[in-house]
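A reminder from the course coordinator: this example appears on the midterm review sheet, so study it carefully.

Given structure:
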């Protein structure tokens, strides 16, 4: 095995067997190396520019990382997929990723969300995968699976992945007319604080919830 294969193997071991063409180039390989490894049966092409080293067991995490890397810089596992990675819900068959608004990406078996507020998603890495922060994940979950949010919130709180004041701050940061997920998460948070909040959530209303609840604001 050559030096480049050793380097790629070390990286793949940290990434569920997944590498990208760009990463191969960064490690000192040439642009055609992935194609040669695919032709020899050592790797398989998982998506455009994304490869999996054969022999590494397939897994949910591997599928998610392939989808995120294929979606390009700044992409994050999100919505139901992020909730599953956090352990708030069970794994779903279809992978969901978020990308910055204005960019277009399509992936087989992948739901792509173009987000106007991805810059405040508080991303973290879970199992080596870029994923939306816990509170943002719960907010996004409300946009696609509202019935799952209440249980997911309480699971997140038990795991100490988030806290009520963080959820409030998340509502404040993301509140805008038409922002999906706000109404669902707001209802759970309002139950906790005993506040009645109208359906027309705005940043000012979310700010008032913070003040009235005595939590304080950033």
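Designed residues:
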């Amino acid at each position: 095995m050559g030096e480049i294969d050793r380097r790629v193997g070390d990286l793949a071991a940290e990434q569920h067997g997944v590498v990208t063409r760009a990463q191969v180039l960064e490690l000192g390989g040439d642009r055609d190396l992935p194609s040669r490894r695919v032709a020899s049966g050592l790797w398989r092409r998982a998506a455009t520019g994304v490869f999996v080293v054969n022999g590494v067991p397939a897994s949910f995490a591997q599928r998610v990382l392939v989808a995120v890397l294929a979606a390009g810089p700044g992409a994050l596992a999100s919505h139901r997929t992020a909730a599953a990675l956090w352990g708030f819900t069970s794994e779903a068959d279809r992978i969901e990723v978020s990308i910055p608004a204005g960019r277009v990406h399509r992936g087989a078996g992948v739901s792509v969300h173009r987000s106007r507020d991805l810059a405040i998603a508080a991303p973290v890495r879970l199992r080596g995968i870029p994923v939306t922060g816990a509170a943002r994940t719960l907010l996004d979950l409300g946009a696609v699976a509202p019935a799952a949010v209440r249980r997911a919130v309480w699971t997140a709180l038990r795991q100490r992945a988030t806290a009520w004041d963080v959820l409030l701050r998340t509502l404040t940061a993301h509140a805008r007319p038409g922002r999906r997920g706000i109404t669902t998460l707001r209802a759970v948070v309002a139950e906790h604080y005993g506040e009645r909040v109208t359906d027309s959530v705005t940043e000012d209303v979310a700010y008032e919830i913070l003040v009235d609840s005595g939590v304080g604001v950033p």
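Residues 3-14 form the longest helix (12 residues). The CA atoms of residues 6 and 12 lie 10 Å apart.
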